Amino acid sequence: MTPDAGHFSENPDDLVILDGRQSQRAAAIQRGLSRMLRQLGFVCLCELGLKNNRRADVIAVGPSGEVWIAEIKSSAADF
Fold first, then answer.
1. Is the pLDDT of residue 7 over 80?
2. CB 56, CB 37: distance < 8 Å
């Protein structure tokens, strides 16, 4: 479900962007990580494009302004 402008879903899974590049395992990790970070008071963005033409799998801003970036590795091929 995509939220309409100004209307946001209460379902945390709706807040994770799946663009088709992720495996099902990576998508599940992304959802779980986003849930955990939200429980810790962070605000999360997924699949954020960076200035160097790379993308951050998950970026989160914490309650005191700290920024965390997580790179999801879900298979041996990722390493």
1. no
2. no
The dihedral built from the CA positions of residue 12, 14, 17 and 19, taken in this order, carries a sign that is positive
What is the four-CA torsion angle of 56, 63, 41, 14, rounded to 10 degrees?
Answer: -40
Segment 4-19 shows an average pLDDT of 52
Pairing of strands 55-61, 67-70: antiparallel
Strand segments (E) across 1-79: 43-49, 55-61, 67-70
Query: Per-residue pLDDT tens for 22-74?
Result: 788 888 899 999 999 999 999 999 888 899 999 899 999 999 999 999 999 98
Largest CA distance in the chain: 40
What is the C-alpha to C-alpha distance for residues 68 and 58, in angstroms, rounded to an integer? 8
Place of tokens 């879903």: 9
What pLDDT sits at residue 22? 72
